[in-house]
Amino acid sequence: MKLCTFLDPAGAHRVGVVTESGIVDVTSQVPADGAGGPMRRLLASGADLGDLRIDGPALPGPRLLAPVPDPTKIVAAPVNYADHQFEMTQDSHIDALGVFLKAPSSLIGDGATVRLPYDDRRFDQEGELAVVIGRRASHVPTARALDHVAGYTCLLDMTMRGGEDRSVRKSFDTFTPVGPHLVTPDEVGPLEELELHTWVGGTLRQRADIRDLIWGVPALISYVSSVMVLEPGDIVTTGTPAGVGQVHDGEEVVVEITNVGRLGVTVTAEGAVACPTLGKDKGPKPPTELTPVFERTPA
C-alpha cells in the first residue's frame, strides 16, 4: 500500500491511499485523538494499514506534503556507504560517527522547492532511502527492528558544505524533501534488492545498491533506538552513496528507489544572502569533480 499526506482546498492535512485512479481520502478512519497530524495519529493507533477502506472517490492531483509532515525527529546516518567515505576522503564512517539529527521544520514534499539560503556557499544533493517508524521503538534488537517499520520513502538530504555542525548545515528550511509516498514493506520487498538513482538537471549522479549500506536498516534502527526512543512517524534516513555534487539555481533534483517511488524538487537561489558563519573552508572536503557513475556501477 502507498499512503500520503496531502492538503485539502481549505489547507488542512489529509491522509490518502494512492490508487491507480488517484488518491483516495481515508482521513475519516484516522483517530481524532492523539498527538500530531493525521498520519502520525494513524501510525500511533497501531491499526493495520492494510485494513483501511478504500471506497471513496479518487482525487486526481492534490498537493502532496512529506508523508509524515510532523515527525518528532529526523535521524540521519553520516557516511554509511564505503564509496561515499572514499569520495569525501573521510577517515571515519558510521561505526565511529553514530547519527545526527535534522530539524523536522526542514521537511517539504514532492514537487516543492529547495531554497538555497546563501549565495557564497556550496550546497550538494544527497539521495537516500528513508524509513518511517510505525511502532514505538526503544532498545530494539536487530532481529526485531523491521517489526517497527511502517514503510519506506525517498529522501533528499540537502547539505551545505563547511565546518559548521551537521545539524546546522542540513537543517535549513526546505532541506529535507521526502516522498512522494509512504510505501509499506510488503510492496517494497527485500531491501537488498533495491537500487537508488539520483539525477540533477537530467544527469545521473548517484547509483547505488541498498545492500551496500555499511549499517543496514535493521542495525541502524536498533542502534538509534538504543540512543533515543523512536516514536510512530519518526524518520530514520540511511545515508547517501557516492556521487554527491553541487546544485544550482533552477536545477531539478530527482531521487528514485526501486519499489519506493520517485521524488522530485526544484532548486532556487532567489533571496540568497551572504553566509554569516565562517565554516566555508573547513569540515569534510567534497569532491571538486563529480564521481563518475561508471566507476560505481556493477559489471
Q: What oligomeric state is this? A: single chain
- In terms of DSSP E residues, the strand content is 25-35%
Helix content: 10-25%
**Class derived from helix and strand content:** alpha+beta
Task: Report the radius of gyration as a whole number of Å.
Answer: 18 Å
Structure description:
Helices cover 12% and strands 29% of the residues. With 299 residues, the protein is an alpha+beta fold. Strands 1, 2, 3, 4, 5, 6, 7, 10, 11, 13 and 16 form an eleven-stranded mixed beta sheet that branches. The chain has a five-stranded mixed beta sheet with strand order 8-19-18-14-15, with no helix packed on it. A hairpin with a 5-residue loop joins β1 and β2. The chain is globular and about 55 Å long. The chain starts with a strand and ends in a 31-residue tail after the last strand. The relative contact order is 0.20.
